[in-house]
Design goal:
The structure is a single chain. By secondary structure, the chain is mainly alpha-helical. It is 45% helix and 6% strand. It contains twelve helices and five strands. A three-stranded antiparallel beta sheet has the order 3-5-4. β4 and β5 form a beta hairpin. α1 packs parallel to α4 and α3 runs antiparallel to α4. The longest helix has 24 residues.
Length: 348
Amino acid sequence: MNRNNNGVGSSSTGGSSQLDNSHVQQQDGSPNSKRVIKKPQQTIGERRELRKKYRTLIQDVSGNKSELISPSSDGLLRSLKKADNLYNNVHQAREAVLDSELLALTSQFGVEQAQKFKVSLNAYDSYGLVSRFKERLTYYSDENNNNNSTINQIGWEKLSELYHSHFHTVPVFDFMYGPINFEPEEKKVRPPRKQNQKDVPVGAAKHAEKIVDTTTQVESETTSSRVQVMKQYLEKNPGKSFIDLVADDTSFAQTVENIFYFSFLLKDGHVKIAKDNEDMIIQPTQPPEEKDYQSKNAQLTHSVVKLDYNTWNNLKEISDLSFHMEEELQQFKKRRGGGGTTQTSTRK
């Protein structure tokens, strides 16, 4: 496709919007200098209309891809002719970009269309080949060459003479299997490797002593001890308020831990919470047995307690602060003979 140089990128000077087509500028004032004919400057409306036509053409080409790349379609050629007509009015780089985009799109579709063409140069018509053979054999079989005779041996011989010069004799070759007396080579047996001084064992291997992490066990015993301390305290002080039990005036973290320990007692059924006016009273109960869970007379439920720092400050003001975990734990250890613990069931 041929494209003419239309002076893409020209600019206006002197503030004028258009220049006369017949305006001619002489370079250096000499008669032999090249004559430069300035193209008319396009208005904004003309450029906008040209870009609109380019975008419409690009959308048409993109939307009709399946039709344009068909081997029997000439749609790409028509699109290129429209692009040539539009390019004659291109004078600025902005419109040239759209023209380049259109050319790239049509080039890509052209490659896909070329790949769809079925070119079979080595194919032949078997029916036509047999027909021509038959016609030639009939011609050679007739002594008068009138194509009226039936095919005979004479026709085959003449036909073979005609094609004989076009074929070469296939060379004869023999298979080579090697000598008749063939004995397989015996495989060499490597002697055992002598042991070096490094390979001689120096004694039984010694392993480092395994260290068992008892941190988890200690934490479990500590949790069970504190749960047992809280249980014995509630047995000595029945009808204790939930807030009076868990609230600790010196530590927000200890308050959270007290709620954690109390959750084991509540979950295993050692205690229950009864509502008395606006207070939550803790009452000791008999833990349910396994058959109660199987018969669904007892069911496990879950509750979430929200406690933030401001709530803890409010709880300290309404709690009697009679329960202190650390003090009760020390007395518990003394009663158990210096740290012995009684395990409390913690069903999960």
